[in-house]
Design a protein that fits this description.
heterodimer, A: alpha+beta, six-stranded antiparallel β-sheet, five-stranded antiparallel β-sheet, 44 helices, 57% helix, B: five-stranded antiparallel β-sheet, coated pit (chain A), transport (chain A), clathrin adaptor activity (chain A)
Chain lengths: 959, 156
């Protein structure tokens, strides 16, 4: 047993030794239980314990807790220790509380009172204990209780330096809990002037606080810029003996320097030329020092020195205005790329990524390409290799794309599984972005599938198809290349998909060659058919019907395949349906009709690569980089705005993707006849609206707008079903909102964060124009100011059989209850018409699904316990309780379904964030279906008062 | 800094300090996950790793691993030196510190950390000043111990 310092609680030391001597886990548990029983009886016993004993037992409990056991008593005794006038007892009491008490404990009130007493103590060590405890716990109650005193304490002339230091950081912690506690006004200037304090410890602590304050409110604190620059300048020019104990391994005040440099990064380069010059001198000096021989061989010296250097580089990158500094920074990092310290190589690669995005240093970064490629090959640490991949991606441009993509493909063959998917995305993006020659692009993507087929996501192979379809010059090459690739004995299923699609569209371009005659193409594809999953087979069946059109000579052979039992009687409904419909189509239609139906796909709408969106989503690091890039592209309009934009792009492309995937590029979910409409109307949007119709209108018949023929049965049901339709839109974004004999109104909407765009499509079903067409939208008075809609104008005439679209932009400002009213007025055959509808814009559209595990779900659930945060409804169902449809509705509602949290698999537990302009509202939900009773119980909790009730009302109507 | 963990080569947690509130269960999970991840890493690897949305900075001293979780914008190299300064303080106080010192005097290890880091930010970087504060605490402790002993024999 080593010597115990200080007063030594002997009993504690003996206990710890006992535990250490336990030979087995069981023995340990036994010893601990014995001790717990002993302590419990002491605490409950009649004999009052003196302070020392209490302290000893509390300390034992603490030790037991630290061993990983749960402690459910002793808290009161610890709180008692707080009021002891002995420092050591008080200190142990505080320690127990900071380690064991959670922010939402009932004990907080008691603790707060004790802390108050100590804060007012004349003894600074007591004040410090209290401050450290607040900083350790930092709960809301504490922010309320001490938000007033601590700012005062911090700027008071009577406060001792050590207390000031703790007070500054304590305030920082409370500020993070509740930003409102900062006083502002005259206090602001006093807090800024702490940067001038004599005591470097005080300045260090204060600069952490000021940095956080600045982050939230840069304008209020902008006076700190010149103070920070002069303080920094004094440190940088100081010799290492000047600052005495604040010099760390020959580096003057590294912590303070880094803090000051961080602080300055929240501002643009100073406008005052004097201040700006001084800052640049500092940065210059830091870069110079990096070139000086080290003053010590110790790693601590180099770490501290380089910590300051990296922070300086970070501010140089941030201002992005001094070309000379940027290039110097780049050269410095270039030296680090081959440093023997792994840590430095790691950081250099990471920081260079940012330099690569600056126009001033992009070229300088490119000089190090060989070194970076070399790190990819030789680094032994995967996290360093990952950084090298990031940097190659960032430094890639038209001049070096081929080489970089080539190297990345090479590396991919042996790359760690953990980074393959991201690499595949990066290669795919670079190949597309810098493809001068699209045959190269096709080769790269096919190589990707060959090398890492499992990691090639749908977005990647969708994209290659979109590009091939849109670019005539590459179609023949693509067909030839996939045909060759498919000849490999084992080829990845993704290759079969791409091959199937491309040959189905462009197989005719290579059919002239005997080696790839129609028959050969078909047999090659069909040889893979039985090894593939259902979705790939479905795709291949479509290829086959396309082949019937392209190559009439193999029609019978294909019909035989469609006819065979494994297809026509396939247990998979989708495959069976395709086989029978395609077979029928090939039997009954004339070649002309067949040729029209199976015409080559029209070009895809040009849009941002969906792959980029996936990559951004995959890694936060990347999105920061991209945001940085976009900020640059936008002329440095401010990183934050660009980051928001990046987020927005990401969401919208994801939405489109979701649509694409459900349509599997061919429109699987719609019957083949529809492809006629597809090619004639040729607007992706209309297809989507119609596509949705099929699922919503009970498969009755063709939608009337599309066929221009009215079905006697459906309009009636649709008109009477107006309100039902609007209800359905709570859980879906697209579909027919309203229909009668004259007009069909369809809706297709997209939402991201707190913004949304609703496309409303008005289709004239008659043979006469609709005139004086004027739709308008209004918000109920109760919700005014909570949601805003902006309606784009639309032409006043809709020609016979035509469709016009109108966009409504909306923003959620606060939670709102009612759907906006929509009034559509027009004249049909000189009779005025007036349709009063609702716009399908409900609060849940602004949900972002949030994934979390059981622990955090229950913790959050418990936190939202006030009555106004919860709403519950128990109601009888109006539709069949089928778990599939319940799931669809719940998913459509917009929250994330959390699996495996509720022990009853029938129940749904969900989480989501509602985005409003003013705040983000966290929402949790539980839905419990009860089949016997045909009832549901729905419980929703939300962080904002009243939101839960609105959501509960919305969702309960869906079942 | 969001939290600091000290654990042994055998994966035993020796000290934990959380500067951001988490439920106990989450703490246990995080701890387990990080200990496994870090113990699996080889000596020549970098001391930094990305983990969830945080950066992990760790360093091994003899049989003990010191591990800090910091935010994206925090400085990794300097975090290594916060760890080092803490080790120096422990070393100075215990006189070439070993794992056993921290096990038997865990409360002292906590007190020392509280002087160095408050609310997740470095509070006092001067070794002298921290040791002075700790020495003052010890002095109080001894006074109180003497006082207690005197009281016991009825002399106070």
């Amino acid at each position: 047993m080593p010597a115990v310092r200080g007063d030594g609680m002997r009993g504690l030391a003996v206990f710890i030794s006992d535990i250490r001597n336990c030979k087995s886990k069981e023995n340990e548990v036994k010893r601990i239980n014995k001790e717990l029983a002993n302590i419990r009886s002491k605490f409950k016993g009649d004999k009052t314990l003196d302070g020392y004993q209490k302290k000893k037992y509390v300390c034992k409990l603490l030790f037991i807790f630290l061993l990983g056991h749960d402690i459910d008593f002793g808290h009161m005794e610890a709180v008692n220790l707080l009021s002891s006038n002995k420092y050591t007892e008080k200190q142990i009491g505080y320690l127990f509380i900071s380690v064991l008490v959670n922010t939402n404990s009932d004990l907080i009130k008691l603790i707060v009172q004790n802390i108050k007493n100590d804060l007012n103590s004349r003894n600074p060590v007591h004040v410090n204990l209290a401050l450290q405890c607040i900083a350790n716990i930092g709960s809301k109650e504490m922010a309320e209780a001490f938000g007033h005193d601590i700012p005062k304490l911090l700027v008071s002339g009577e406060t001792m330096d050590v207390v000031k230091q703790s007070a500054a950081l304590c305030l920082l912690r409370l500020f993070r809990t509740n930003p409102d506690i900062i006083p502002g006004g005259e206090w602001t200037s006093r807090i800024i002037h702490l940067l001038n304090d004599q005591h470097l410890g005080v300045v260090t602590a204060a600069s952490s606080l000021i940095e956080a304050l600045v982050k939230l409110n840069p304008d209020e604190y902008k006076g700190c810029v010149s103070l920070a620059v002069s303080r920094l300048s004094r440190i940088i020019t100081a010799s290492y003996t000047d600052l005495q104990d604040y010099t760390y391994y020959f580096v003057p005040a590294p912590w303070l320097s880094v803090k000051l440099l961080r602080l300055l990064q929240h501002y643009p380069p100073p406008e005052d030329p004097g201040v700006r010059g001084r800052l640049n001198e500092c940065l210059d000096a830091i870069l110079n020092k990096a070139q000086e021989p080290p003053k010590s061989k110790k790693v601590q010296h180099s770490n501290a020195k380089n910590a300051v250097l990296f922070e300086a580089i970070s501010i140089i990158i941030h201002s992005d205005s001094e070309a000379a500094l940027l290039v110097r920074a780049c050269n410095q990092l270039g030296q680090f790329l081959s440093h023997r310290e792994t840590n430095l190589r790691y950081l250099a690669l990471e920081t260079m990524c940012l330099l690569a995005t600056s126009e001033f240093s992009h070229e300088a970064v490119k000089k190090h390409q060989e070194t970076v490629i070399n790190s990819l090959k030789t680094e032994r640490d995967v996290s360093v290799r990952q950084r090298a991949v990031d940097l190659l991606y960032a430094m890639c441009d038209r001049t070096n794309a081929e080489q970089i993509v080539h190297e990345m493909l090479n590396y991919l063959e042996s790359a760690d599984y953990s980074i393959r998917e991201e690499m595949v995305l990066k290669v795919a993006i670079l190949a597309e972005k810098y493809a001068g020659d699209y045959t190269w692009y096709v080769d790269v993507i096919l190589n990707l599938i060959r090398i890492a087929g499992d990691y090639v996501s749908e977005e990647v192979w969708y994209r290659v198809i979109q590009i091939v379809v849109n670019r005539e010059d590459v179609q023949g090459y693509a067909a030839k290349t996939v045909f060759e690739a498919l000849q490999a004995p084992a080829c990845h299923e993704n290759m079969v998909k791409v091959g199937g699609y491309i040959l189905g569209e462009f197989g005719n371009l290579i059919a002239g060659d005997k080696r790839s005659a129609p028959q050969v193409q078909f047999q090659l594809l069909h040889s893979k058919y039985h090894l593939c999953s259902a979705s790939t087979r479905a795709l291949l069946l479509t290829t086959y019907i396309k082949f019937i059109n392209l190559f009439p000579e193999i029609k019978t052979e294909i019909q035989n395949i469609l006819k065979c039992d494994s297809n026509l009687r396939c247990s998979d409904a989708e495959l069976q349906q395709r086989a029978s419909e395609y077979l029928h189509l090939s039997l009954v239609t004339s070649t002309d009709v067949l040729a029209t139906v199976l015409e080559e796909m029209p070009p895809f709408a040009e849009k941002e690569s969906s792959i980029l969106a996936v990559l951004k989503k995959k890694s936060g690091r990347m999105s920061a980089q991209e945001a940085h890039k976009e900020a640059r592209a936008a002329g440095g309009a401010g990183g934050a705005a660009a980051a928001v934009a990046a987020g927005a792009v990401k969401n919208s492309t994801n939405d489109k993707n979701a649509k694409n995937s459900s349509a599997d590029l061919f429109g699987i979910s719609t019957p083949p006849v529809n492809s006629q409409n597809n090619s004639s109307s040729n607007t992706g949007v209309l297809v989507d609206v119609l596509g949705d119709l099929y699922s919503s209108s009970n498969n009755s018949s063709m939608p009337s707008v599309a066929t221009n023929g009215t079905n006697s049965a459906s309009p009636a049901t649709l008109t009477s079903g107006v309100t039902d339709n609007i209800k359905k839109f709570v859980c879906k974004n697209n579909g027919v909102l309203y229909e009668n004999d004259i007009i069909q109104i369809g809706v297709k909407s997209e939402f991201r964060q707190n913004l949304g765009r609703i496309g409303v499509f008005y289709g004239n079903k008659t043979s006469m124009p609709l005139q004086g067409f004027l739709p308008s939208v209004s918000i109920s008075s109760a919700d005014s100011g909570r949601v805003s809609v902006q309606v784009k104008p639309v032409e006043s005439t809709i020609e016979a059989g035509a469709q016009v679209q109108q966009f409504v932009n909306c923003e959620c400002i606060d939670h709102f209850e009612d759907l906006p009213e929509m009034l559509v007025c027009f004249t049909y055959g000189s009779v005025p018409q007036r349709l009063s509808l609702k716009l399908p814009l409900s609060i849940n559209k602004f949900f972002e699904p949030t994934d979390m595990n059981g622990e955090s779900f229950f913790a959050r659930w418990k936190n939202l316990s006030s009555p106004s945060q919860e709403s519950q409804q128990i109601f009888k169902t109006t539709c069949p309780m089928e778990s599939g449809s319940i799931r669809t509705k719940v998913m459509g509602f917009g929250m994330q379904i959390l699996e495996g949290i509720d022990p009853n698999p029938e129940n749904f537990v969900c989480a989501g964030i509602l985005h409003t302009r003013t705040q983000q509202i966290g929402c949790l939900m539980r839905l419990e279906p009860n089949r016997q009773a045909q009832m549901y119980r729905l419980t929703i909790r939300a962080s904002k008062d009243g939101t839960a009730k609105i959501l509960c009302n919305l969702l309960s109507q869906q079942f | 800094m969001q939290f600091m963990l000290l654990f042994s080569r055998q994966g035993k947690l020796r000290l934990q300090k959380w500067y951001v509130a988490h439920p106990d269960k989450a703490k246990k999970k995080i701890t387990r996950e990080l200990i496994t991840t870090i113990l699996a890493r080889k000596p020549k690897m970098s001391s930094f790793l990305e983990w969830r949305d945080l950066k992990i900075v760790y360093k091994r001293y003899a049989s003990l691993y010191f591990c800090c979780a910091i935010d994206q914008e925090d400085n990794e190299l300097l975090t290594l030196e916060v760890i080092h300064r803490y080790v120096e303080l422990l070393d100075k106080y215990f006189g070439s510190v070993c794992e056993l010192d921290i096990i038997f005097n865990f409360e002292k290890a906590y007190f020392m950390l509280d002087e160095l880091v408050v609310g997740g930010e470095v509070c006092e970087t001067s070794k002298k000043n921290v040791l002075k504060a700790i020495a003052a605490q010890d002095l109080l402790q001894e006074d109180e111990a003497v006082e207690g002993a005197l009281r016991e024999i009825g002399l106070y």
